[in-house]
Specification:
Shape: globular
Oligomer: single chain
CATH superfamily: Gcn5-related N-acetyltransferase (GNAT)
Order of helices and strands: EHHEEEHEH
Structural class: alpha+beta
CATH class: Alpha Beta
C-alpha cells in the first residue's frame, strides 16, 4: 500500500468533489442531490475559506513502467463553529468520502490525523466534531478508533427553499 499525502483542494478539483458529495449523499442517506447546486456549493467553498476548506488525500499509483501518478482517493470538508462557552472554535469535519477501491486502507485516518495536527497547532481551536448517520456503524467504529466520542447531541434542522428567481430577501 502506497503512502498518502494530504493537500488543499483547488478549483480544478470541484467536479470530482461534487461527484463524491453526491455519491456520499446517496450511500449514506439515499438522497439524490442536484448536480449543479452541489458543484456551485463546492466551488463557493473552495474560493472562500471562511465558508469551507476542502482537503484531498492523494495516493501514488503506477502508470507505465516505473512511472507513478498521484490520484485523489478521498476527501473531507472543514467548517468552523464559534463556541462562546469555551471562547474558541470547533472545526467540523463534513462531506467525508473515500473512493470505494480505497476504503479500509487508512485514507480517512490519514485525513483525520492531518486535520487533528493542524487543529492542535492552531491557536483558538478547541476540538474537532462531526456528525454521522445513526445507522452508519462502520463510520462510527472508525471515528471511535481515532479517539472520538459520541457527544450525545441530536441534530435538528429547519430547511428552507431558496427564493424564487427575481425575489430577494427584502421581498
Amino acid at each position: 500500500m502506497s503512502s498518502l499525502r494530504i493537500r488543499d483542494a483547488h478549483a480544478a478539483d470541484a467536479p470530482l468533489l461534487a461527484q463524491w458529495a453526491q455519491a456520499m449523499a446517496w450511500e449514506t442517506e439515499h438522497k439524490r442531490l442536484d448536480p449543479e447546486t452541489v458543484l456551485a456549493g463546492v466551488h463557493a467553498g473552495i474560493v472562500d475559506p471562511a465558508r469551507a476548506r476542502y482537503l484531498i488525500a492523494m495516493r501514488d499509483a503506477p502508470l507505465a513502467g516505473d512511472e507513478l501518478v498521484s490520484v485523489p482517493v478521498g476527501t473531507l470538508m472543514l467548517t468552523r463553529e464559534w463556541s462562546d462557552w469555551r471562547n474558541g472554535e470547533w472545526w467540523w469535519i463534513q462531506s467525508v468520502y473515500v473512493a470505494e477501491a480505497h476504503r479500509r486502507q487508512g485514507v480517512f485516518a490519514a485525513l483525520y490525523r492531518h486535520v487533528e495536527a493542524r487543529a492542535r497547532a492552531t491557536a483558538g481551536v478547541i476540538g474537532l466534531r462531526l456528525y454521522v448517520e445513526r445507522d452508519n456503524g462502520n463510520a462510527q467504529r472508525s471515528y471511535r478508533a481515532l479517539g472520538m466520542d459520541d457527544a450525545g447531541y441530536r441534530v435538528f434542522e429547519a430547511g428552507f427553499e431558496p427564493p424564487a428567481t427575481g425575489q430577494g430577501a427584502s421581498d
